[in-house]
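Field log, afternoon session.

UNIT: design team B
ACTIVITY: writing a sequence onto a fixed backbone
BACKBONE:
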């Protein structure tokens, strides 16, 4: 059902935008202009008079689609299907970018999605990569927030001028990310993605589907102590 609705929305959007922007239409108009003087001489109407009725119908179609899609989106919101409502409002803006009220509702909806489905757990800062148990999805926004403080402790000998090793992504520090910061990675199809900075808060739209893993970016063998309270919300699925 959702695919049919989105396909219909996309078709309407493509039609309205295509009517206004089609290179074929532009080419035809150019040809009509070259003939307009001849037609005027014969007392016939110019090309603008011929397309005025079509322009009115296009505006009516745009207005009708905007109204109907917005109403349907509100029904989806009431039914708790926020992602479907979001897709419909985005389709409305594709047809009518100047619809400021729709834009406002879309921003409110996005914020509502990010704050929904909240899951919390405690993260031990002395551990390596830890599974959050949360599945995230490609193109679906999630919000990660961390609260609390911890004690960073590390004692080691034999460290050269090269610093901490960065060879084994599973155990060593993640290169290019702040030492001591909360970082994340998504494991999809048994393959880890590129680690990214989370810090105290991050709104993320994943480029792949997989399990979200978190850790403090600290060298192996650290003696960190304390707990970080982490919440994950938005388009996530927990086991």
């Amino acid at each position: 059902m959702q695919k049919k609705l989105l396909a219909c929305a996309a078709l309407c959007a493509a039609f309205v935008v295509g009517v206004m922007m089609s290179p074929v239409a532009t080419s035809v108009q150019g040809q009509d202009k070259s003939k307009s003087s001849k037609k005027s001489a014969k007392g016939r109407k110019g090309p603008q008079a011929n397309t005025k009725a079509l322009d009115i119908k296009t505006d009516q179609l745009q207005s009708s689609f905007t109204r109907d899609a917005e109403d349907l989106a509100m029904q989806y919101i009431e039914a708790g299907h926020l992602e479907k409502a979001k897709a419909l409002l985005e389709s409305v803006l594709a047809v009518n970018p100047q619809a400021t009220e729709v834009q406002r509702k879309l921003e409110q909806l996005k914020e509502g999605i990010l704050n929904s489905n909240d899951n919390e757990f405690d993260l031990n800062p002395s551990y390596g990569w830890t599974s959050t148990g949360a599945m995230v999805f490609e193109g679906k926004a999630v919000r990660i927030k961390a609260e609390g403080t911890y004690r960073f402790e590390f004692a080691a000998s034999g460290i050269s001028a090269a610093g901490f090793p960065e060879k084994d992504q599973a155990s060593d520090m993640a290169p290019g990310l702040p030492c001591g910061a909360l970082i994340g990675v998504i494991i999809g199809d048994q393959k880890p993605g590129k680690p990214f900075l989370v810090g105290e808060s991050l709104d993320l739209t994943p480029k792949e589907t997989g399990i979200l893993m978190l850790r403090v970016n600290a060298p192996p063998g650290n003696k960190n102590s304390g707990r970080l309270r982490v919440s994950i919300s938005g388009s996530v699925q927990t086991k």
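LOG NOTE: DSSP finds five helices and twelve strands in the chain.
NEXT ACTIVITY: expression trials, pending approval
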